[in-house]
Design the sequence.
């Protein structure tokens, strides 16, 4: 099971792969860049209702947010 730190590292990696900055992801989701930063540092997690938007923003499946080996 993925903990918040592992999820944060995964999220940061996927964001960088997508070529987006934290501010871009934040703007697309209607949150602050500080919120995205907290997610990536494992200090908090996005609301479950945001996972679809988050995965779409990064161009990956929801499963890919949680599984390192999951294809884009």
Sequence:
């Amino acid at each position: 099971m993925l903990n918040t730190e592992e999820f944060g590292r995964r999220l940061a990696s996927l964001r960088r792969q997508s070529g987006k900055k934290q501010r871009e992801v934040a703007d697309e989701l209607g949150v602050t860049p500080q919120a995205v930063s907290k997610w990536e540092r494992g200090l908090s997690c996005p609301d479950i209702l945001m996972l679809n938007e988050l995965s779409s923003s990064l161009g990956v499946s929801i499963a890919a947010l949680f599984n390192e080996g999951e294809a884009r």
Notes: The first helix runs from residue 4 to 18.
